[in-house]
Amino acid sequence: MTRIILPLFIVAATAGCSTLSDRFGMDASQSEPAAASAPTEAPTEAPAEAATAPAAATPPAASPIATGGSSAEALDTTTAAEREAASRAPASTGAALGTTVVSLGSATEPGLWLKTPLVDAEQPGRVTNPATGKSAAVTLIPLEGPATAGSRMSLPALRLIGASLTDLTTVEVSTEG
């Protein structure tokens, strides 16, 4: 019985393995050396084929992650002026809303924002990282859940307050004065 089931399991498990060569780029890179070593009858066609081969191997750019890498700098779409304005100390202090634990929100969603259950309506606010003392002006966006639930913060805002992009950070939230 195991002689039948084991081979069937192996066949089923490796059925999708043909896409692995695509993911690791094995199909294009292994076929090019064989084509390059084969003699050609028309030497004028060889440069044209060589020029199109690298273009076919290059995947199309569909997102900022694919084109610019996955670094925080590549995904941060705020301008230097926006970062400087958000980092300025407020003219007056706003009402303290409380503290919340934040994690990185959608890295592709632009702007300086905090999605938190501490507010009922979208409004300007400020987040402060007590560990670094840095703060940033953000847009406070309501998030469903109890006030003790965590919050999600934009990548540029996390960078401005000196918070880790991979850890959970406790921040103080207030309205903008």
Roughly how many Å is the radius of gyration?
26 Å
The amount of helix comes to: 25-40%
The main sheet orders its strands as 1-5-2-4-3-6
Strand tally is 6
Written account of the structure:
The chain is an alpha/beta fold and about 180 residues long. About 35% of the residues lie in helices and about 20% in strands. It has helices at about 1-15, 20-25, 25-35, 45-55, 65-70, 70-75, 80-85, 155-160, and strands at about 95-105, 115, 125-130, 135-140, 150-155, 170-175. Strands 1-5-2-4-3-6 form a 6-stranded mixed β-barrel. A hairpin with a 6-residue loop joins β3 and β4 (about 135-140). Residues about 25-70 have low confidence and may be disordered.
Concise overview:
Helices cover 37% and strands 21% of the residues. With 177 residues, the protein is an alpha/beta fold.
SSE diagram, text form:
Layout: H1 2-13, H2 18-23, H3 26-37, H4 45-57, H5 64-68, H6 72-75, H7 80-87, E1 96-104, E2 113-116, E3 123-128, E4 135-142, E5 151-153, H8 155-160, E6 169-175
Parallel strand pairs: 1-5, 2-4
Antiparallel strand pairs: 1-6, 2-5, 3-4, 3-6
Observed structural traits:
177 residues, 8 helices
